[in-house]
Amino acid sequence: MANFKTMTCTGVSLLLFFCLIPSCLAYNVVSFGARGDGRTDSTSAFLRAWSAACHSTSQANVYIPRGTYLVRTLNLNGPCRRRIEFRIDGTLIAPTNYHAIGHSEFWIMFYKVSGLSVYGGTMNAKGHGYWSCRKGGKSCPQGARSIQFMWCNNVLLRGLTSLHSQRVHVGIGYSSNVRVENVKIIAPSGSPNTDGIHVQNSRGVTIYGSIIQTGDDCISVGPGSMNLWIEKIGCGPGHGISIGSLGSSYNEAGVANITVTNSVFTKTQNGVRVKSWARPSGGYAKNLMFSNLIMKNVGYPIIIDQNYCPNNNCPHQNSGVKVSQVTYKNVKGTSSTQAAMKFDCSYTNPCTGIRLQDIKLTHNDRLRRPAISYCRNASGRRGGTVTPRSCF
């Protein structure tokens, strides 16, 4: 049988399953020495397959067949000569000893790759030992993101299942035109800092049709993020979908043009949240749209928190982040706290241009206490029926 790594996909029906890029060359990691037995370290084989595919003069495919592949940190660097596909039909597992990847910022890193498609498969970072270290107050490594895209353009991530990341499951930084769809992200509700998807300093990112169950934000949007579209997300457990935290430094890029729509939040700490540290900053968050959302027993379904301080050790300052032009439209469901809508904004930089339209949030409370809205340093307007009654 011909070696997969040298066989052209065009016209060869056997390999059409492996390559979705027309006229590509397929590089099977097994041909480079990987073993799908769950015990053999296949890191070097993966790196050799990537290098060969990245240097190919034809569009290329790195193929991981069925099996369980043990890999340590993978630096999958570009730029590559042509478009490249990374197809996972098997399962990637991290070493049981969390130090093996925990001293890196990531487990798998795609760096400066343009025209990249990553399909399918499962990644299990085995984060339980690392979380126990963190919770035990021990001296722990910084922890690794499971999959990171840095300085990448024109990226598609589809069908991946990410299990038990040490920290963030999927990171997107300094990248553009990225689409994430039909991914499934799972970690226990008590796992620390295991954000599902984190976007920062990136433009043109779409996150669509995904299930995220984790211990921190389902999706977090950091400074420098522009033109994001988030749709059809099932979030929970977790901390909700957050813009921020913002304002950690003064010279910080702003956030603009973010849409979250047609999504469901189930037993999350928050629903849709904007959060910033109470400290001086030149940052901003503007043109935010939250629409067609269902809240099921969510702590704070709608919240702007400009006094974010998770460890209660922050200086008594005011947030310099300017929050403006935020729309909440057709948000319905139940709140597990009485403050179903909370706008806790900066004294020196009040929130402006908040619009509430067709809101129906009730308090899920055995004592039948009504839901309320809370405002501090916030102004806006309402339209349609707004329950609880707007506080501005």
How would you describe this protein?
- By secondary structure, the chain is mainly beta.
- Helix content is 7%, strand content 51%.
- The chain has a 19-stranded parallel sheet that branches. Strands 5-8-11-14-17-19-21-23-25-27-29 form an eleven-stranded parallel sheet.
- The N and C termini lie far apart (72 Å).
- 47% of the residues are buried.
- The N terminus is likely disordered.
| CATH homologous superfamily heading | Single-stranded right-handed beta-helix, Pectin lyase-like
If you average the pLDDT, what whole number results? 93
Low-confidence stretches at least 5 residues in length (pLDDT < 50)? Answer: 1-18
By secondary-structure content and strand pairing, the structural class works out as mainly beta
The number of helical elements comes to 4
Shape type: elongated
CATH architectural arrangement: 3 Solenoid
Helix content: under 10%
Strand segment tally: 30
Rg result: 22 Å
Q: Major sheet: size, sense and barrel closure? A: 19 strands, parallel
User: CATH fold name, please?
Assistant: Pectate Lyase C-like
> How big a fraction of the residues is strand?
over 45%
In short:
With 392 residues, the protein is mainly beta. It contains four helices and 30 strands. Mean pLDDT is 93; it is low at 1-18.
Quick tags:
single chain; 392 residues; mainly beta; Pectate Lyase C-like; 19-stranded parallel β-sheet; eleven-stranded parallel β-sheet; 4 helices; 7% helix; elongated; disordered N terminus
